[in-house]
Amino acid sequence: MALKVDDSPDDKKAGENAKESIGLRVLKVLVVVMGIMIVVGVAVIVATIVNRLSESAVDAPPSLPTGALQRFEDTQITIPSGYHVRDMQVDGNRLILRLESESNPVKVLVVDLSTGQRLGALELVPNSKP
Q1: Are 75 and 85 in contact (CB under 8 A)?
Q2: SS3 123
Q3: pTM, 2 dp
Q4: Does one domain contain both 54 and 89?
């Protein structure tokens, strides 16, 4: 006849403690992992903000040279009658004016900024050949 041994109350408590211990360890690991994920997420957000701010500074238009400005006399730049200034840009020491008219082709006028003299003009005409 085989003897049946019942689990003693101490053995049951030890088993429950082991189960609680495993559950507690899993919970602690999950808390640590989630904490690390939060820290990494915040670091990514900060890095993205810094990156975007530095890109906007790089994309800013170049500033004019900061050397001493030289005085110059008032200068008139004549544009053909019927035209108006549509756009202007500065390229180094040149002023580029885009002139438009309702009935005439577009003209591009290039002016030397240091002397105010007209360097040349380009007339943009459509190609008549198909």
Answers
A1: no
A2: strand
A3: 0.44
A4: no
